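Example record

One chain of 272 residues, shown exactly as stored in the release files.
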Amino acid sequence: MKIMAPTSCFLSVAGEQLHYYSWGSGKKLLLAFHGYGNSAGIFEPFVEPLCHEFTILSFDLPHHGLSRWQGAAPLPVAAFVEGIQALMAEHGVQQASLMGYSMGGRVCMSLLVQAPALADKLLLLAPDGLTAGGMYRFLTRTVAGRWVFRSLIERPAGYIGVLKLLRRWKLIKPSLYEFAMFYIEDRNMRLTLAKRWPSVSAFLPRRAQVRATIRKYNTPVFIFMGRHDKIIPPQLAFRFQKGLKTVHVQVLERGHRIFDLSNAALIAQSLL
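Predicted structure tokens for this chain:
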């Protein structure tokens, strides 16, 4: 089956323009959010199994893909919820399913906490947001942390030296070291990180809030984790799941990039 070409659209939020693709013609609505460094097209493998039952709206987050996000201010959660609700009204629905990969998982959880009646299901793929996110919160939400982050971007040599020492002394996991060095050593990577990371810093819900909301509204949540994921290991999902009857966790024989054409139909069954 040939996958249909998406319709390219824009959503105005806080004076900026968020790009999104629209696929399918189903009566149900699925809102999809990608991970760091990805774009809206990453969810194309889900189009074939879902397009008849769902209309899929896949968003480019700020400073990603085709979004026209010029300012330095983060994407505001409340304004984004208003925009999402307007889109839902256009499609004639009161609820939508939410799908998030990696960083996009944190977006889904934030939307759930902000507007719990909006979501009928969550499909989280190797999601960020299962833990407190202390370091990210510090670097993007505090004065001291933003100073450290800016210093890292502008003068990385000292931080690179510290990372190398931590690796030599085995005080940092090799996977975390490689991940950090990948984004710090290259100047263009750092400059891109400086725009992208803070742009979604408002989407950082407290883990306890997310769990409380799921429990109160009995929201079905399906979490798929990669057994070989070195960035977000599966045990985080099982800890998050504990005590929540509507949260289901499945571990696939994958790394962090947990889905592609070969298994998208399997994952999509959780929504069908």
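Notes: The longest strand covers residues 16-23.
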